[in-house]
Amino acid sequence: MFEITQPTRRMDQFQPVRAIPVRKKKKPQLRAPILLALIVAYFIAPLRTNILLLGTDDSPERGSAGRTDTIILTTIVPLKPYVGMLSVPRDLWVNIPDVGEQRVNTAYFFSEAQQAGAGAEAAMDTIQQNFDVPVRYYVVIHMQGVIEVIDSLGGVDIELESAISGLSAGTHHLDGMGALMFARDRSMSDDFGRMAGAQTLISAVLKKALHPSSWAGLPQFTFAITQTVDTNIPPWQAPRLLFALARATSSGMDSRTITREMVTPFTTAGGAQVLLPNWEAINLTVKEMFGG
């Protein structure tokens, strides 16, 4: 029988098999310019942030439903940078939502007395309605905690252009107790003087806290703040606001008050001594500081 065999091929007849390179997919990388743009956008957007700063007169004897003797409408524009603080007299006679005409410092009290934790929102609503300034965030400082906050910084230095609250013109170093007495003094100055004093003290605290020499004590300062301050500012907002504050503090903040010329003293039917707002004059200052 015949055997069928397959034809053989010589080795030189085989074509070499070429290896096909496998291309690896490049992982998407965020380019440096885009990353830089995102960082810049974080620190300057939104272009303006308005915050209502409240200082309460609550105490262990009075409870938490105190009145807000310190009311400062604050605006921060990181791009400039610009920080403006407008102090509002506690006796300003305004319309409080769901309450009626009352002193502006009672908006917090009435709401807080009904529901703990609701006072700051009520104060924001009152300011927004009367000043026509959108306010999203609040910071409530419980005055009894000021002692620990300032002592954690080793005290603060305040500079006075004129005598106020029993202190002469010039530079004074205040510890926590001294700062609280300065902020609450009622014998040596009226409401307008106390508003200027409160702004002086707040500026001194910010300047001291943001100075590199105080950074070693920031943990203690931060702890004291958390025990003293209530706020609805989210944590992710804090770095950009602090950065803007640091820049503005070095160049100077725009600190103003509603002055005597912007109000008219008035006695209510119940015998209360209050201040009627001259909105035409007040709104000029509000427009300069808060836009609109």
How would you describe this protein?
It is a single chain. The protein is built from 9 helices and 12 strands. It is α+β, with helices and mostly antiparallel strands. The chain has a domain at 45-145 and 214-290: Nucleotidyltransferase, domain 5. It has a 6-stranded mixed β-sheet, sandwiched between helices. β2 and β3 form a beta hairpin. α6 (191-210) crosses α8. The longest helix is centred in the C-terminal third of the chain and has 20 residues, at 191-210. It starts with 31 loop residues before the first helix and ends with a helix. The mean pLDDT is 85.
Low-confidence stretches: none
Strand content: 15-25%
Distance from N terminus to C terminus (CA atoms, Å) equals 109 Å
Strand pairing plus helix content: what structural class?
A: alpha+beta
Q: From the 3D structure, determine the CATH topology of the domain at 45-145 and 214-290.
A: Nucleotidyltransferase, domain 5
Shape: globular
In the CATH classification, which architecture of the domain at 45-145 and 214-290 applies?
A: 2-Layer Sandwich
Number of helices, counting only DSSP H or I runs of 4 residues or more: 9
Spatial order of the strands forming the largest sheet: 9-6-1-2-3-10
- Largest beta sheet, briefly? 6 strands, mixed
* Percent helix: 25-40%
From the alpha carbons, calculate the radius of gyration and give it in angstroms. Answer: 31 Å
Number of E-state strands: 12
Helices and strands, in order, run as HEEEEEHHEHEEHHHEHEEEH
Taking all residues together, what is the mean pLDDT? 85
The CATH class assignment of the domain at 45-145 and 214-290 is Alpha Beta
